[in-house]
Specification:
By secondary structure, the chain is of the alpha/beta class. 38% of the residues lie in helices and 23% in strands. The strands form 3 sheets. Strands 8-11-9-10-12 form a 5-stranded mixed beta barrel. Strands 2-3 form a two-stranded antiparallel sheet. A two-stranded antiparallel sheet has the order 7-13. A hairpin with a 2-residue loop joins strand 2 and strand 3. 38% of the residues are buried. The structure holds uridine 5'-triphosphate. The site of uridine 5'-triphosphate has 21 residues, from helix 5.
């Protein structure tokens, strides 16, 4: 088994029901943050974490993702003819960002099942899992933070962040013993617990480094919460067989598969945009000033 993490699996085959009707015919992973689709940020994160072989698990209605990472001869020709060379260069780079292969999950049977679909392509080596609708904007790429922990502990590592206790039922929640700064050896994992049942407020954030023994567990995994084959349930079994770790990941995390999460990410990335940020900030300040003036007028 390779000692380093060279491959990442992106599960992209969910229905995206929280974002309907937008997701009826378009993948939520193609929603833009300013001018790049969310999934491109996640691919760039993997590449800057030293991972450039990516297995994308797709499903019906997700073709736009494949087209985005493919070469677009016509578009390149148009840009060349118009002399838009900087844009041409940017577009060309997307198709050579990483080595990407695609596998279809024929039915949306859950995140655990989507991971299992990648078994043949991942093979017998450790691999990263990154959800294509979650963006982490931090001091270092989120996957790199986990890869660095993996190199030390040589076992599965799950990215986590603290969430308000009232929100735990939207996440997989972990708990365990703190063994280092931001490093926990996990002794319990629960998918979407009620606040009363939650063993902590440490939520799984959609970034993992896994070892191939997870596949044997997923192969025989029964459906869990929501009738889906849950990765969290398989990880609980894995944690009963070998040490599994959680790493408190640094950075602002946005779940863009959630409408409010997407709006927050849009505002943050808009404000940070080198060419748009100043104008956007000015625009927002104006809106709030007008709002304040209207509020004051009411009194
Ligand atoms: P979500 O819980 O976000 O589910 O899945 P979803 O179907 O995409 O969205 P909602 O909750 O209905 O709005 C977590 C991740 O697992 C992938 C999704 O694409 C998402 O990145 N997934 C989920 C699969 O690839 N296959 C599945 O069967 C389920």
């Amino acid at each position: 088994m390779s000692a380093d993490v060279r491959k990442a699996l992106f599960p992209l085959a969910g229905h995206g029901t929280r974002f309907l009707p937008m997701t009826k015919a378009s993948p939520k992973e193609m929603l833009p943050l300013v001018d790049k689709p969310v999934v491109q940020y996640v691919v760039e994160e993997a590449v800057s974490s030293g991972i450039n072989e990516i297995v994308m698990i797709t499903g019906r209605g997700k073709r736009a993702i494949e087209d985005h990472f493919d070469i677009s001869y016509e578009l390149e020709d148009v840009l060349r003819q118009k002399g838009k060379l900087a844009l041409l260069e940017e577009i060309r780079k997307i198709s050579s960002l990483a080595e990407i292969v695609y596998m279809r999950q024929k039915e949306s049977k859950g995140l655990g099942h989507a991971v299992l679909c990648g078994r043949l392509l991942i093979g017998d080596e450790p691999f990263a899992v990154a959800l294509g609708d979650e963006v982490v904007d931090g001091p270092a790429p989120a996957l790199l933070q986990l890869v660095e922990v993996f190199r030390k502990v040589k076992g599965p590592v799950i990215g986590v962040q603290k969430v308000p206790k009232t929100d735990v039922s939207s996440y997989g929640i972990v708990a365990g013993n703190v063994i280092g700064e931001g490093l926990i050896r996990i002794d319990s994992l629960v998918e979407k617990p009620s606040p009363a049942e939650a063993p902590s407020n440490l939520a799984i954030i959609g970034r993992y480094i896994l070892t191939p023994d997870i596949f044997d567990i997923l192969e025989v995994q029964d459906p869990g919460v929501g009738g889906e084959i849950q990765l969290t349930d398989a990880l609980r079994i894995l944690a009963s067989r070998r040490p599994v770790y959680a790493c408190e990941t640094q950075g602002n995390r946005y779940d863009t598969g959630d409408k409010l999460g997407f709006l927050k990410a849009t505002v943050q990335f808009g404000l940070k945009s080198p060419d748009m940020g100043k104008l956007f900030r000015h625009y927002l300040e104006n809106i709030f000033q007008k709002g304040d003036a209207m509020e004051a007028g009411k009194e």
